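Standup notes, structure subgroup. Blocker cleared on the orotidine-5'-monophosphate input:
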Amino acid sequence: MTKLTPEQAAAKVMVALDKPDRSAALQLAEQLQGTGCWAKVGMELFYAAGQDIVRELKARGFRVFLDLKMHDIPNTVRGGARSIAKLGVDMFNVHAAGGAAMMRAAVQGVQDALDAGETATKPLIIGVTQLTSTNLTTLNEEIGIPGTVEEAVLRYARLTKEAGLDGVVASPLEVGAIKAACGASFLTVTPGIRPKGADVGDQQRITTPSDAVKGGTDYLVIGRPITGAADPAAALQTILKEMSSSYDDR
Ligand SMILES: O=C(O)c1cc(=O)[nH]c(=O)n1[C@@H]1O[C@H](COP(=O)(O)O)[C@@H](O)[C@H]1O
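Run returned:
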């Protein structure tokens, strides 16, 4: 059992910069700069601010997770992945529900960019399993997938691994089962993080930062508990303190 240093804790945190424009995102990034945490750029920010925001965050020293959750036919995802790879992001994701051929196409798209000399950075590619905003009712009664949420997550995780991706997005509650099924080095990226007493919002499958660390997750994706705080830098520090006083069980 090893205790995380504050630096190790920060390197596991991906702050979701879910902001409506460039200046709001950069204002937030300024408060987080130098901590060692990642910046996650999702649909809200990317659709508003475009590729430049990724370059600006990279220039400020952030590792960037581009969260656009591609889900399309393989040929389109291959081209999309090539375009994303050119941007020099450190990680991006696709929906595992797009199937194995689609996920292999994402890997191929990155290879296309590397082969063409369009980038020197090989980003990690992550498959989104079952969104953390969903529960058993959503799965069984709305989407029509039978079985438990964990079974669905594991099915997606195995498929993602077979397709050659680096890991999955899932809830921190499912990390132990994913690692047992896919191996310790298969990455888990886990949103659904809520410090005790924080507003749950639209998330369904959640844990605290310390329980996520104890469960052995690789990365904690955290948005509103940090970005919605009156003092985001202080909120991050409180979370890092909680994480580093927990134990990493792996
Ligand atoms: O891929 C993701 O990042 C993601 C997958 C998922 O299943 N659930 C999920 O919440 N996310 C993202 O993680 C972030 C969570 O933000 P908060 O709920 O504000 O902490 C958001 O930017 C979501 O888009």
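Discussed briefly. The chain has a mean pLDDT of 97.
Next: hand off to the docking folks.
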